[in-house]
Design brief:
Strand order of the largest sheet: 3-2-1-4-5-6-7
Number of domains: 1
Radius of gyration: 18 Å
Order of helices and strands: EHEHEHEHEHEHHHE
Helix content: 40-55%
Structural class: alpha/beta
CATH superfamily: NAD(P)-binding Rossmann-like Domain
Largest sheet: 7 strands, parallel
CATH class: Alpha Beta
Shape: globular
Distance between the termini: 37 Å
CATH topology: Rossmann fold
Length: 261
């Protein structure tokens, strides 16, 4: 069960953070993995790691997928190099801070361009390859921020992540006749490179708000994505899987203190 050894997967935004965590899980399972990112140096470093983990093959594609042409070219290049495509993990995303009172048009356009348009164009470009595979899987990386929670300075980011789920539901209906499933993972607080830079005190404060008592890892998100990519998950589509250690459950900070247990 849950064999991914013959799977060809493309992970957008796969050179670091959650995207690299997803790619690492597929690599450990022996899948052939393609990753995209805008920075060639980060891609090469990530590729070396994936090869060491046992990926059947590793392909890197330097690309900006926010535009339709870039996404189409990147997906086609990855599919050609892998000999086809079975799984698309549409993970590429950005999260710059911009308070609503001072947000500019460029701030909003940039976030929606990468997080929403990049998702739509990547999925559209992958369709012929996923249909030809006979077992196509699309896994989107959304977030608890937007669909479930909010955070000051991220109203544009939250809007983009909620938009991904609206897209997912209709895409799942449209693509079901071709046997392609479309699902999403919704990470909570995950210990990525950017988060680690905020310091130990900040990380401890964040972990204290999570019932399981610790931040997630990029691989935690990768395992959820990998499950949704399996043949065994064929009957799951249009589903948003929260992976957050219980972060969205407490109604107050006091609910996760030791005295509440």
């Amino acid at each position: 069960m849950f064999d991914l050894a013959d799977v060809r997967v493309l992970v957008t935004g796969g050179s670091r953070g959650i995207g690299l965590g997803i790619a690492r899980v597929f690599a450990k399972a022996g899948a052939a993995v393609a990753i995209t990112a805008r920075t060639p140096e980060q891609l090469e470093a990530a590729a070396a790691t994936l090869k060491e983990l046992g990926a059947a093959r590793v392909v890197t594609v330097a690309a900006d997928i926010a535009g339709r042409a870039g996404a189409t070219a990147a997906v086609a290049e990855a599919a050609e190099a892998l000999g086809g495509l079975d799984v698309l993990c549409a993970n590429a995303g950005i999260f710059p801070e911009a308070p609503l009172a001072t947000m500019t048009e460029d701030d909003l356009d940039t976030v929606l361009g990468v997080n929403v348009k990049g998702t739509v164009w990547a999925v559209q470009a992958a369709l012929p390859f996923l249909e030809a595979s006979g077992r196509g899987r699309v896994v989107l990386t959304s977030s608890i921020t937007g669909p479930t929670t909010g955070f000051p300075g991220w109203s544009h980011y939250g809007a983009s992540k909620a938009a991904q789920l609206g897209f997912m539901r209709t895409a799942a209906i449209e693509l079901a006749p071709a046997g392609i499933t479309v699902n999403a993972v919704l990470p909570g607080n995950v210990l990525t490179e950017g988060l680690a830079d905020l310091g130990e005190d900040y990380l401890a404060q964040m972990a204290a708000s999570i019932p399981l008592g610790e931040l997630g890892t990029p691989e935690d998100i990768g395992h959820a994505a990998a499950f949704l990519a399996t043949r065994e998950a064929r009957y799951i589509t249009g589903h948003a899987m929260v992976v957050d250690g219980g972060q969205i459950l407490p109604e107050s900070a006091e609910a996760v203190t030791p005295s509440a247990s």
